[in-house]
């Protein structure tokens, strides 16, 4: 069956929030554990729900740390977020060619909407499934299944596109094709080892994979 549905992660895939995420983690961890966590440690947290990241640091104060992170993240959002090369044009082309598009992200809805609006990508996505909408975020397939249900699609028709191991694992768990982006902050070698079906050098590579002229 032909792919007609694309499920996209947001951060690190469509929009470059790496500087913002690292700055927000650095700010928060520096407040509670000065000089204990390196940039490499922080990169290891990227892609999983915030509460899980901070629970691994300090289970008792995890919720409190999440609030500190989110305040910093929202206040600095528009200063530090940019769009990856080729993303806008590719998403626009996919929509014009009748593909069903959804965002599937571990972020909360308010910051998802901020990022989509800032990069003008909001016009292309009628379905957005955030961490607020499910009991079990990625790598559990619940978010992907919810997006496919809202789009009227099946796993045979869908592909998950993301930058972290959680995206690729969620895609495999949902029984959909997977595409990883080579610009993942976790590194090309790391993301290749997750064995995605496709590795994208530029978002426009999707058009070739899907046979879009």
TrEMBL record:
GO molecular function, a single term: phosphoglycolate phosphatase activity
Keyword presence, Hydrolase: yes
Keyword Hydrolase among record annotations: yes
Alphabetized Pfam families for the sequence: HAD_2
Keywords: Hydrolase, Magnesium
InterPro entries to which the protein is assigned, alphabetical: HAD-like_hydrolase_sf, HAD-like_sf, HAD-SF_hydro_IA, HAD-SF_hydro_IIIA, HAD_2, HAD_sf, PGP-like_dom2, Pyrophosphatase_Ppax
GO cellular component, one term: cytosol
Gene Ontology biological process terms in this record: DNA repair
Name the record gives this protein: Pyrophosphatase PpaX
Catalysed conversion reaction: diphosphate + H2O = 2 phosphate + H(+)
Gene3D superfamilies attached to this UniProt entry: HAD superfamily/HAD-like, Putative phosphatase, domain 2
Protein task: Hydrolyzes pyrophosphate formed during P-Ser-HPr dephosphorylation by HPrK/P. Might play a role in controlling the intracellular pyrophosphate pool.
Assigned EC number: 3.6.1.1
Entry annotation: catalytic residues: 9
């Amino acid at each position: 069956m032909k792919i007609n549905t694309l499920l996209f992660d947001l951060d690190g895939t469509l929009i470059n929030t790496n500087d913002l995420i690292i700055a927000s983690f650095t700010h928060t961890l520096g407040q509670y554990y000065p000089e204990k966590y390196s940039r490499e440690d922080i990169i290891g947290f990227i892609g999983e729900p915030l509460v899980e990241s901070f629970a691994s640091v300090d289970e008792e104060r995890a919720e409190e740390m999440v609030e500190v992170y989110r305040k910093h993240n929202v206040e600095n959002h528009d200063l530090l977020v940019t769009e990856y090369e080729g993303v806008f044009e590719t998403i626009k082309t996919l929509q014009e060619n009748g593909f069903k598009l959804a965002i599937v992200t571990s972020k909360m809805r308010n910051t998802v909407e901020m990022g989509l609006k800032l990069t003008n990508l909001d016009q292309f996505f009628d379905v957005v499934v955030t961490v607020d909408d499910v009991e079990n975020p990625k790598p559990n397939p619940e978010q992907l299944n919810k997006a496919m249900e809202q789009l009227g699609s099946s796993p045979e028709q869908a592909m998950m596109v993301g930058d972290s191991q959680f995206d690729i694992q969620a895609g495999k768990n949902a029984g959909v094709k997977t595409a990883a982006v080579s610009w993942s902050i976790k590194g090309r070698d790391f993301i290749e080892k997750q064995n995605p079906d496709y590795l994208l050098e530029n978002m426009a590579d999707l058009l070739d994979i899907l046979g879009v002229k």
